[in-house]
């Protein structure tokens, strides 16, 4: 864990956050990494918030063992019947976010945000989010991110959908393969072998795609069923792609659901494809679309610009749905904008408003090979001005949406949206290949 992530993990709660809850008869506290019972009760609240059943002893043990990297905050009502179970939860940790150009910046990742139905509409979420973001800002995080179950919640805090994910359902009987025929070979491997290969491959390729973050602790084991609390792990099958020289360049994991009415029409659900080369990508997908006794292949968390679209001959055999997925929230405008690359040399002014008064101001972005950002009182004459909220700035950061689109939607104001669009354009479509 980096020094910044360590500092954030152990930082004291924001004083205003703590005093606000105290004034409301509630108590906010961090759940210690060595507090087993406190962690279990915190997990009870998270399970309740996400409509899960009561955790089992195995789930308690795995969560306690694997989630020490998370900064866990609970809000407690000491007057309640179950006073040791928090009425609200909030988890966060330090990670890295890939930006256009292959650079990565520190990011405060947010997860496990819940408020009990008995304590809704009391400003609990707002107080938690504002306080924890203030802590992240004070330590120097330039951006925050999260994946959401409910998309209408986080806009008021300055978050915006920066990465869209697609879910695919492909009728394999209605389409054929027209993509490259990869020269390597496909082999079945154990879940443990697949996990190890995927871990190494992902670390090698995540800087190639804007929107990806470092994999959180325990996630690979959950994906590959190599931890005791994963249900139906025995259903998972893992294959790897090896190049002609013997290098492992790709891994795929899937499961099969049989069709009792037509055994030749089973469904394969692809949990993950991690490909380090174009050949591995083609080889793995060709294999998955030609599985025996499978009539439908499903996959999710794919890109909106997936190469697979151009590898099947009947596009209408694929039903594709899109969903907002990775939400970002800029905390430090100069640090964030200066960290990404730009394919054009230009200068624009950004007048940014921020509902939380964290990242607002007027900034001059000098885009190019060595970008720079200056804070000014007024934009200079002759420089085009873009007026936007921090949510809109967060949305265009990775190139996932064009400023032209947001201008037409009334979300930004500028006399030259096309110029702003050229500045923020990215040659690689952003993607986040998992939930966190």
Put simply, the count of helices is 12
The helix-and-strand class reads: alpha+beta
Averaging pLDDT over every residue, what do you get?
Answer: 97
What topology, given as strand order, has the largest sheet? 1-2-3-4-5-12-6-11-10-9-8-7
The number of E-state strands comes to 17
The helix content, as a percent range, equals: 25-40%
Series of H and E elements: HHEHHEEEHEEEHHEEEHEEHEEEEHHEH
% residues in beta strands: 25-35%
Query: Unreliable segments (pLDDT under 50, ≥5 consecutive)?
Result: none
State the separation between the terminal residues, measured CA to CA.
17 Å
Largest sheet: 12 strands, mixed
Task: Give a written overview of the molecule.
The chain is an alpha+beta fold and 436 residues long. Helix content is 27%, strand content 30%. The protein has twelve helices and 17 strands. It has helices at 3-10, 15-23, 36-49, 57-66, 124-139, 191-205, 219-224, 278-288, 333-339, 390-396, 403-408, 417-424, and strands at residues 27-30, 71-76, 88-98, 104-115, 143-147, 160-171, 185-189, 237-242, 248-257, 266-275, 294-302, 318-330, 346-353, 361-367, 372-376, 385-389, 412-414. The strands form two sheets. Strands 1-2-3-4-5-12-6-11-10-9-8-7 form a twelve-stranded mixed sheet, sandwiched between helices. Strands 15-14-13-16-17 form a five-stranded mixed sheet. The longest helix is centred in the first third of the chain and has 16 residues, at 124-139. The protein is globular and about 60 Å long. The two termini are 17 Å apart. The mean pLDDT is 97.
How is this structure best summarized?
The protein is of the alpha+beta class and 436 residues long. The protein has helices at residues 3-10, 15-23, 36-49, 57-66, 124-139, 191-205, 219-224, 278-288, 333-339, 390-396, 403-408, 417-424, and strands spanning 27-30, 71-76, 88-98, 104-115, 143-147, 160-171, 185-189, 237-242, 248-257, 266-275, 294-302, 318-330, 346-353, 361-367, 372-376, 385-389, 412-414. The strands form 2 sheets. A 12-stranded mixed beta sheet has the order 1-2-3-4-5-12-6-11-10-9-8-7, sandwiched between helices. Strands 15-14-13-16-17 form a 5-stranded mixed beta sheet.
